[in-house]
Amino acid sequence: MTGEGIGCAITLVAIAIPVAIYLRSQAEEARKRREAAEKYRASLSEAEGNYRRMLEILRSNPTDPETREKALSWGRHFAALTRQAVGSSVTIYDEVALSNDINAACAGANRANHVAVSRESRDSTPLEERLTKLKNLLDKGLISSEEYSEKRMRLLDEV
Questions:
Q1: What is the distance in angstroms between the CA of the first residue and the CA of the last residue of the chain?
Q2: Rounded to 5, what percent of the chain is helix, strand, coil?
Q3: How many helices (H) and strands (E) does the chain have?
Q4: CA pair distance 46, 42, nearest whole angstrom
Q5: Which of these, 64, 67, 63, 85, lies nearest to 75 by C-alpha position?
Q6: Which letter does DSSP use for residue 143 in this model?
Q7: pTM here?
Q8: Tell me, what DSSP letter sits at residue 125?
Q9: Annotated domain spans of the chain
């Protein structure tokens, strides 16, 4: 090999080694980004799943403040991960959305509470007055005698 050929070979090696090192570092960076993305997706999926599960638990026990707090905590964690992906910081919307979800999950408790309050106010009416109203409904033909008898028995059973 001539001096010129050796010089070309050395130049090629001098170029090839840094290029190989650069390509290897790029491949390593790409692998790290893929692993980070997979880890992020797993975290996001776990947070969303836990948030949804806590909402379901809250639906079955809407008056439990501890469950409500856990649902809110998981919801905030899920929202933070979502913002991280998008790169925004829309925290006000997130809090409103979480509040809406939690209030919807607790709606059953509000209905049950309303029924209990309604029943209490109805029970505060004297029995004699309720029986008189029931008899008036029968006399006006607004309820049948069977309905009258059934409701009258229910009222008397409360005593």
A1: 117
A2: 85, 0, 15
A3: 6, 0
A4: 6
A5: 67
A6: S
A7: 0.50
A8: S
A9: 3-124, 126-159
